[in-house]
């Protein structure tokens, strides 16, 4: 066969054509994959509780402190998302910042039960798989949100409660802290006021904490509130949500609110939305608030803003004592929030946009 053989030339053309088609296909697949990534802007929203009294007595110093803390949590989450990280990692990172801050009733700074003990709850959910994990009534785990994630990823369960939850956290290498770590004088004085008002006995101060100050410490007066939560969307469009709380101030020992209840305090599904709640847990459990909002989005075709507004301002508010709020995010919209209280600590940011942090005002 000569160099000028038409059969050989024809074969060469077929080979080159096939290669071009293959490369074009690969390029097309790459462009589509990249297009899907770039078309989905990451987004995140953070809350630090909703309520009344805190906002009635807000001064410039308190406002600045909450502003700084919410900003730090937001930065922790956006640092993950802006580098292509998973929404689940962003949720955990942001919540850990708030758990480590004694301003909030989650982790350090948690409220006390009527025996003067800390019983903390947390949950987390992956919207891409519907995997979820939660812990309830932990007393010693430094970051309950990490314990909740460990339950999701390292056990066949969704929820572990009480001493078993702390033991599970220890087995999984999560840091444990003494009762004195979670203690804050402001929360303690809050508890004493509630117990005295209700005529309940006053418990002894936890071991290892400073002596009671001679001058009175003014409590935040938040009582029911201070829960923290985060919803996030990563560049792949995957949604996640998480919530963490120290619970209701002066609650009965063993009481569990909505924060660790999947569908009440936390829910995330790519086909609908991601939700984190804050407020009086008993009402949020009865209405399955987080799942209700997602159901309205998925089955009624409502926007996340309209769904959140309906549930918080109609359904929750219709129950006497039903107070609180939510942050909500779907795969395409900017994060939204809705609350029926005087205020809610909240922040949000979308890729390409500026951070928005709100401490006072609607």
Describe this structure in words.
The chain is an alpha+beta fold and 362 residues long. It has two domains: 1-39; 41-358, (Glycosyl)asparaginase (Glutamine Phosphoribosylpyrophosphate, subunit 1, domain 1, 4-Layer Sandwich), CATH 3.60.20. The chain is 39% helix and 19% strand. It has eleven helices and twelve strands. The chain has helices at 6-39, 53-56, 60-81, 87-99, 144-154, 163-171, 179-182, 185-198, 281-286, 289-300, 304-316; strands at 43-51, 120-126, 131-138, 159-161, 228-233, 239-245, 266-268, 274-279, 324-329, 336-339, 343-350, 356-358. Strands 4-3-2-6-5-1-11-12 form an eight-stranded mixed sheet. Strands 7-8-9-10 form a four-stranded antiparallel sheet. A hairpin with a 5-residue loop joins strand 5 and strand 6. Helix 4 (87-99) packs antiparallel against helix 5 (144-154). Mean pLDDT is 89; it is low at 6-11, 17-37 and 219-224.
Q: Which tags fit this structure?
A:
eight-stranded mixed β-sheet, 362 residues, four-stranded antiparallel β-sheet, 39% helix, globular, alpha+beta, Glutamine Phosphoribosylpyrophosphate, subunit 1, domain 1, single chain
Kindly identify the CATH topology of the largest domain: Glutamine Phosphoribosylpyrophosphate, subunit 1, domain 1
From N to C, what is the helix and strand string?
HEHHHEEHEHHHEEEEHHHEEEE
User: What Rg is obtained from the alpha carbons, in whole angstroms?
Assistant: 24 Å
Reading off the top of the CATH hierarchy, the class of the largest domain is best stated as Alpha Beta
Proportion of residues in β-strands: 15-25%
From the N-terminal CA to the C-terminal CA, the straight-line distance is: 84 Å
Strand segment count: 12
């Amino acid at each position: 066969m000569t160099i000028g053989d038409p059969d050989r030339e024809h074969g060469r053309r077929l080979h080159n054509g096939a290669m071009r088609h293959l490369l074009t296909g690969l390029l097309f697949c790459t462009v589509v994959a990249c297009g899907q990534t770039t078309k989905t802007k990451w987004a995140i929203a953070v809350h630090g509780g909703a309520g009344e009294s805190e906002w009635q007595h807000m001064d410039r110093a308190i406002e600045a402190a909450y502003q700084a803390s919410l900003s730090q949590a937001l930065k922790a989450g956006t640092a993950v998302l802006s580098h292509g990280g998973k929404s689940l990692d962003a949720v955990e990172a942001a919540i850990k910042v708030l758990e480590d801050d004694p301003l909030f009733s989650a982790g350090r700074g948690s409220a006390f039960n009527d025996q003067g003990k800390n019983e903390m709850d947390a949950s987390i959910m992956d919207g891409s798989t519907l995997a979820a994990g939660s812990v309830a009534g932990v007393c010693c785990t430094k970051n309950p949100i990490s314990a909740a994630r460990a339950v999701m990823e390292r056990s066949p369960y969704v929820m572990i409660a009480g001493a078993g939850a702390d033991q599970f956290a220890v087995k999984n290498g999560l840091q444990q802290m003494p009762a004195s770590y979670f203690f804050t004088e402001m929360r303690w004085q809050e508890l004493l006021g509630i117990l005295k008002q209700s005529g309940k006995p006053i418990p002894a101060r936890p071991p290892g904490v400073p002596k009671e100050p001679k001058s009175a410490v003014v409590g935040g007066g938040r009582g029911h509130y201070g829960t923290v939560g985060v919803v996030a969307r990563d560049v792949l469009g995957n949604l996640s949500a998480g919530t963490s709380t120290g619970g209701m101030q002066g609650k009965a020992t063993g009481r569990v609110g909505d924060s660790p209840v999947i569908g009440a305090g936390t829910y995330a599904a790519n086909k609908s939305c991601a939700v984190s709640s804050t407020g009086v847990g008993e009402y949020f459990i009865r209405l399955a608030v987080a799942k209700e909002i997602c159901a309205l989005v998925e089955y009624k075709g409502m926007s996340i803003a309209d769904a959140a507004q309906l549930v918080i301002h109609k359904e929750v508010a219709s129950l006497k004592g039903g107070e609180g709020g939510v942050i909500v995010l779907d795969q395409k919209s900017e994060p939204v929030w809705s609350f029926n209280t005087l205020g809610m600590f909240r922040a949000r940011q979308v890729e390409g946009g500026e951070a928005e942090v709100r401490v006072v005002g609607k």
